[in-house]
Design brief:
This protein has 238 residues and is mainly alpha-helical. The protein folds into two domains: 120 residues; 57 residues, no CATH class. It is 74% helix and 3% strand. Helix 1 packs parallel to helix 3 and helix 3 crosses helix 4. The longest helix has 38 residues. The two termini are 48 Å apart. The chain binds zinc ion.
Length: 238
Amino acid sequence: MKEQLIARWDTFLRNIDKRFEESLAHGEQAVLESLEENYDYYTSFRTLMAIRMQIDESVIRKIDTTWQQQVLPLMQADGGHYWADESHKGYHASDAMHERMQLWLYITEGKLSQKYYDHAIELINRDFFCTQCNAPLQVKKDLFRAHYITCNYCSAVNTFEPETKYATIGWNVVDNLAALYALQEYKAMLQARKNGGDVYPKAVRAYCEKYFDERIKLMPHTADTREQDIEKKVNLTL
Ligand SMILES: [Zn+2]
């Protein structure tokens, strides 16, 4: 009986792992497709959060409920204490899934932001003209917020108000993109945390530096605060 029960539990864990992987893949696809409807970043972000919760409830938590309600009673009735080792398998599987889910969230937010960015960045690819003399204006295309532009011809001060969809880039989208571009450093940091020791603080710093360097490429004016920004993020992460 023992071998059969263990084999059945192992099969369940293998199947749920497969279902988890499929759910992540479908989830990513659904989030990215949801953006195409109206390119509303926040709606798609909420979809992402809803999918995460759904995977958590219908897949990851199923490990514990199946264990508690079906597997454990059978193993206990079977006698002995081998159920204790089998219980660890379940905890380990569910912990590992939570970790993979975090990474999936990180990457999917990045991919969503990339797709949004590629669309919204085009909104500014047109000409803007002075309200006084109609001469072309030099709009700062990587500021993502309202700013004043002095006309080169008549010196009138124009207020440039970017569309909301465009300004959204400067809020969350650049952060998620910078994070996506620093994915390698992020993974190295997670690995260093597991390994422990003094490699971890170094890996955190390497990640934060990469993150802000990528962010500066997207928003050059943030270069002024590079050092402070890195310090702050390092301290928050450690
Ligand atoms: Zn003018």
